[in-house]
TrEMBL record:
<dbReference type="GO" id="GO:0005524">
    <property type="term" value="F:ATP binding"/>
</dbReference>
<dbReference type="InterPro" id="IPR045759">
    <property type="entry name" value="Ap4A_phos1/2_N"/>
</dbReference>
<feature type="domain" description="ATP adenylyltransferase C-terminal">
    <location>
        <begin position="195"/>
        <end position="320"/>
    </location>
</feature>
<dbReference type="InterPro" id="IPR036265">
    <property type="entry name" value="HIT-like_sf"/>
</dbReference>
<dbReference type="InterPro" id="IPR009163">
    <property type="entry name" value="Ap4A_phos1/2"/>
</dbReference>
<dbReference type="InterPro" id="IPR043171">
    <property type="entry name" value="Ap4A_phos1/2-like"/>
</dbReference>
<dbReference type="Pfam" id="PF09830">
    <property type="entry name" value="ATP_transf"/>
</dbReference>
<dbReference type="GO" id="GO:0003877">
    <property type="term" value="F:ATP:ADP adenylyltransferase activity"/>
</dbReference>
<dbReference type="InterPro" id="IPR019200">
    <property type="entry name" value="ATP_adenylylTrfase_C"/>
</dbReference>
<dbReference type="GO" id="GO:0009117">
    <property type="term" value="P:nucleotide metabolic process"/>
</dbReference>
<protein>
    <submittedName>
        <fullName>5',5'''-P-1,P-4-tetraphosphate phosphorylase 2</fullName>
    </submittedName>
</protein>
<dbReference type="Pfam" id="PF19327">
    <property type="entry name" value="Ap4A_phos_N"/>
</dbReference>
<feature type="region of interest" description="Disordered">
    <location>
        <begin position="53"/>
        <end position="72"/>
    </location>
</feature>
<feature type="domain" description="Ap4A phosphorylase 1/2 N-terminal">
    <location>
        <begin position="5"/>
        <end position="186"/>
    </location>
</feature>
Length: 345
C-alpha cells in the first residue's frame, strides 16, 4: 500500500494563525453573518445572512479595452499571505480570500486541473490528510471539532472557479453565532440524513483509510448518483467512467465519518413569502451537505425565518426529490448497487 500523504501536524493552529495575520493585514475579506436554525423536516438547517456580501469586491475592469479579459485564476499564484502549506507534491492549502466562515481554507491542485472533471486519488488522499491532521490534534486535547470538506462540480453545483479545488471548513467555526448545545451538527454526519428533501448517496469512511480506498468509495457513490439522475431524467448512460468530465452536476462532502454525494439538477430556487410573493433566490453549494444555507438580502432572510417551508421547497428542487420515489433509508436501494464504472484507458 502506498504511503499516505500527510498534512502539517499543527494544521489547526497553522490555519488559525495564518487567518488572523491575513485578516489583520487586509489580505482577505471576512463577512460576518447573522444565524438562525430552521427546521427542514427533522433536520436543523443553519440559515445565515451576510448583508456585506452584496458589496463583495470585484476585480478591476479596463473600460477602454474591447477584448474580453481572461478570468483570473486565484489558485495559479496565490498571495503569500494566504498560503498555508503544501500537502504532498501536487496540492497546497490556501485561505479563502472571501470568507463567510472564519478560517475557511482551500485545497488546490498545484497544476491546473479542471473542476468539472472527476476527482483523482491524490485529490481525496490530500483531503483525507487534512481531516487526519485535525483529528490528531483533537486527540491531543485541541478544541477542534474536525473538518467539513466539500467539492462543487458541474453547472448546477455552485462551482465558481475552473481550477480544481476542495474547500475545508473547521466545524467549530461553523458554529459561530449559535447558542451552545446540540442545536445543529453537520448534516453529513447525522443519523437522519435520509430525512432531507433531496436524495444523497453515502458510505461510512475513516481517517485511517488509504487514498485508494477513499477514491473507491467516491467512484462508487458517483456511479450511483449518475444512474439515479439518468433514470429520473430519462437519459440513462450505458456506462459511468472513472475519469474525465463529469456526467452530472453534484456536490461531494467528506468528514471523518462519512462521504456523501448529492446529485444536483438546479443551483437554487425562488424564495416566496407566506403571501406567495417572490422575494429573491437562494443559491446553494456543497455547504448544503453540512446543513447550511446563505442569503444575501434581508427580504430573503425575513421570508425564510417566517416561513421555513419556503426553504424546504427550494431544497426539494435542487436535486432528486425524495417525494414519490424514496422511503426513508431506501434511496440507495432504489438504484442498482452494482458498480458500472470503467477506467478510461
Amino acid at each position: 500500500m502506498a504511503r499516505a500523504l500527510s498534512a502539517p501536524s499543527n494544521l489547526p493552529s497553522l490555519v488559525r494563525t495564518t487567518f488572523a495575520k491575513a485578516l489583520a493585514g487586509g489580505d482577505l475579506h471576512y463577512f460576518p453573518t447573522k444565524v438562525t436554525i430552521l427546521p427542514v423536516n427533522s433536520v436543523p438547517f443553519q440559515l445565515r445572512f451576510s448583508p456585506a456580501l452584496a458589496n463583495k469586491p470585484k476585480p478591476p475592469q479596463d473600460a477602454s479595452s474591447t477584448t474580453p479579459r481572461k478570468p483570473l485564476d486565484p489558485f495559479a499564484n496565490p498571495p503569500p499571505a494566504l498560503y498555508i502549506a503544501d500537502v504532498g507534491p501536487s496540492h497546497y492549502l490556501v485561505l479563502n480570500k472571501f470568507a463567510v466562515v472564519p478560517e475557511h481554507f482551500i485545497l488546490a491542485t498545484r497544476d491546473f486541473k479542471e473542476q468539472t472533471h472527476l476527482l483523482e486519488e491524490p485529490d481525496l488522499d490530500a483531503t483525507l490528510a487534512c481531516i487526519r491532521a485535525f483529528e490528531e490534534t483533537r486527540d491531543k486535547g485541541d478544541e477542534s471539532d474536525g473538518l467539513f470538506a466539500f467539492f462543487n462540480c458541474g453547472e448546477h453545483s455552485g462551482a465558481s472557479q475552473p481550477h480544481r479545488h476542495i474547500q475545508l471548513l473547521p466545524v467549530d467555526r461553523m458554529r459561530d453565532g449559535l447558542e451552545s448545545g446540540p442545536l445543529w451538527n453537520v448534516l453529513a454526519d447525522r443519523e437522519d440524513l435520509a430525512d432531507t428533501p433531496f436524495v444523497v448517496f453515502s458510505e461510512p469512511v475513516a481517517p485511517a483509510m488509504s487514498g485508494a480506498e477513499i477514491h473507491g468509495v467516491y467512484l462508487r457513490l458517483y456511479g450511483q448518483a449518475c444512474r439515479a439522475v439518468g433514470e429520473r431524467t430519462g437519459t440513462r448512460a450505458e456506462e459511468v467512467l472513472a475519469a474525465g468530465p463529469t456526467q452530472i452536476s453534484y456536490n461531494m462532502a467528506m468528514t471523518r465519518n462519512r462521504l456523501v454525494i448529492c446529485p444536483r439538477l438546479s443551483e437554487g430556487g425562488v424564495v416566496c413569502g407566506r403571501d406567495g410573493r417572490d422575494v429573491g433566490r437562494v443559491a446553494l453549494n456543497g455547504t448544503l451537505l453540512a446543513g447550511t444555507a446563505l442569503v444575501k438580502n434581508e427580504a430573503e432572510w425575513d421570508a425564510l425565518r417566517e416561513n421555513p417551508d419556503a426553504l424546504v421547497a427550494v431544497l426539494k428542487g435542487i436535486g432528486l426529490s425524495r417525494e414519490g420515489t424514496c422511503r426513508r433509508g431506501e434511496c440507495e436501494e432504489a438504484v442498482d448497487p452494482k458498480s458500472n464504472i470503467t477506467t478510461r484507458g
